Amino acid sequence: MKKTLLILAVLSIAASAYAVDASEGTQKGDKALLFNASFVNAGLYDGGLGFKYYLAPGLALRPALKFGYITTTDKDESIDTIANRQRTYKDDVQETMTFGLELALEKTLWTNGAVNVNAGLVGSFGMTNYDRESGYTESEVVAGAGTADQTSWTSLYSTEFGGGLLLGAEWFITEAISLGAEYQLGVSLSSESVDQSATSLTTTVGGVTNNIYVLNQNPLASTMDIGFQTIGLTLGIRF
Fold first, then answer.
1. What is the DSSP letter of 58?
2. What is the pLDDT of residues 160-203, one digit of tens each?
3. Is residue 30 classed as helix, strand or coil in its secondary structure?
């Protein structure tokens, strides 16, 4: 807390020294890169890349692009003996890919010195794809008695739409650097279009091979969330 207050005090002194007129940073053609600010570092804006461009004095378009890819592999080298069978597990592999777009229209309502008060509209769209694969191989302890190879898959695909109203403020520390924060009142709708799991089992006993494939279509889920959301500090770098 003391560190945060110290940083705010330093920023306040810097802002006073520059005596910035916030309205000068909202002219037609002005543009800025947006970051999440936590004082000690700058991160992705709302989980993606953010940009602001002023179409007219005090009227800005604020697009954001979101993309993520995560893959994890859990290696299981253990071997279990079940009855007279020996089971060796395969790697458990999970992949998640997300993509999203957000677009906000921001209007400056009031300016006082280095501070602008803004309001606007925001809309968003996102997609998430999740896949998981695991399994095992199995053989009889008695050599040549039989083998089994099992693989399981899970696949989920969902889309999300959102929109709402925003109200916030932006403080110009210098002509090129600003800090902003805002409230958003909106609705978010999420819906699954794919939710399925499958299992493939191949067994060989006495030289005879059998294949079994089972596909399960799981119930599709949908959610709706309505409420207020506080967007953390946003660092704007004008160029």
1. T
2. 999 999 999 999 999 999 999 999 999 999 999 999 999 999 99
3. coil
Q: CA-CA distance, 93 to 14, in Å (whole number)?
A: 50
pTM: 0.79
Q: Could you give the CA distance from residue 161 to residue 193 in angstroms, rounded to a whole number?
A: 14
CA angle 212, 215, 216 (to 5 degrees): 140
Token duo for residue 185: 């009142």
Q: By three-state DSSP, how is residue 34 classified?
A: strand
Domain that holds residue 86: 56-174+182-229
Spell out the alpha helix ranges (H) of the chain. 2-18
User: Which pair of structure tokens corresponds to residue 213?
Assistant: 């494939």
Q: Does residue 127 fall inside a structural domain? A: yes
User: Tokens standing for 182?
Assistant: 């805002």
Q: How far apart are CA 9 and CA 53, in angstroms?
A: 29
The alpha carbon of 140 is separated from its chain's Cα centroid by a whole number of angstroms, namely 46
Task: Determine the 3-state secondary structure of 144 from DSSP.
Answer: coil
Which of 64, 62, 178 is CA-nearest to residue 121?
62
Kindly state whether residue 137 falls inside one of the protein's structural domains. Answer: yes
Q: Is residue 21 part of a domain?
A: no
